[in-house]
Design a protein that fits this description.
- There is one protein chain.
- With about 270 residues, this protein is an alpha+beta fold.
- It contains eleven helices and seven strands.
- Strands 1, 2, 3, 4, 5, 6 and 7 form a seven-stranded antiparallel sheet that branches.
- Strand 3 and strand 4 form a beta hairpin.
- Helix 9 runs parallel beside helix 11.
- The protein is globular and about 55 Å long.
- The termini are far apart.
């Protein structure tokens, strides 16, 4: 909906390990936390563990006729041996896709140190390289673990200045939101509301297109795989009721249950384990 905003606030940012700052526009404040800082390492870990929420939201964004997200981006740790030393930069990617195995996207930053990648490159990385994820709806930020770790270390004035530069509502740095309107609707932390609301339409679609229930793509992914990866129990239950094979494996030797477990979708694991 507003990729111009995304490019403005992220296009020049690159967190380089052992550096003293990050690229910035003149007069814009930079608040940098070293990648080896304990609080930042914990932020990276939490981002990886909750990545399913990011992909779930982007999955449904791709199904919307009218876009609902201001932007969606993922921060990735890129590394390169330079002069016998491993240099690491944390940079943002957009145009993100996830197949349960790897995260794909387009690099949005200009590296400050690395020469192996450049802004605009298409990249594919493992989940272990994820150091943050973030999306915004109507200016409200979800995710942003590393950003919140930096905000938490700021004074109140610094935090206000940071938020003004970004032009986004980051809220309380101690409360990181994972799902849209989770405060008002805590059930959104379990099942995405669009998954629930699309139940009848999905049933109708599958009745009219029964081949979709068992059809696999070139890499062996079925609809059941994709819905499990996105954490959609409603769709998983419909597919199983219509005869989807929960034991079907893709080229990686993975079933839908394997992905649900890996991504921490306990409610989907329960449905697939019955």
């Amino acid at each position: 909906k507003n990729m111009g905003l995304f490019k403005k606030i992220l296009g020049g940012e690159s967190d380089a390990k052992n550096s003293k700052g990050a690229n910035k526009e003149e007069n814009e404040p930079v608040f940098y936390a070293d990648g080896e800082d304990a609080a930042m390492l914990e932020a990276f870990k939490r981002a990886r563990e909750s990545f399913g929420y990011f992909w779930r939201e982007l999955y449904w964004e791709n199904h919307r006729i009218i876009p609902g997200l201001d932007f969606a981006c993922v921060k990735v740790a890129f590394s390169q041996d330079i002069g016998g030393h491993t240099e690491v930069e944390h940079m943002w990617i957009n145009d993100v896709y996830f197949d349960g195995e790897r995260v794909y996207g387009v690099l949005a930053n200009d590296p400050g140190i690395l020469t192996s990648v450049a802004s605009g490159d298409e990249v594919a990385v493992s989940l272990e390289q994820i150091s943050d994820w973030m999306f915004a709806v109507d200016g409200r930020v979800y995710g942003g673990f590393s950003v919140q770790a930096m905000r938490k270390a700021m004074s109140q004035d610094e935090r206000a200045e940071h938020d003004e530069v970004w032009g986004l509502d980051f809220g309380d740095p101690d409360v990181i939101l994972l799902a849209y309107e989770q405060e008002k609707h805590p059930q959104n932390l379990i099942e995405h509301p669009m998954s629930v609301n699309m139940k009848e339409e999905l049933q109708k679609f599958l009745s009219q297109n029964p081949k979709e229930i068992t059809q696999a793509d070139d890499e062996g992914y079925t609809m059941l795989h994709r819905e499990a990866i996105a954490g959609n129990r409603t769709a998983v239950e419909i597919l199983l009721a219509k005869g989807a094979d929960k034991n079907a494996k893709n080229i990686h030797g993975k079933t839908a249950l394997d992905y649900a477990r890996a991504l921490g979708w306990d409610h989907v694991v329960q449905a697939l384990s019955q």
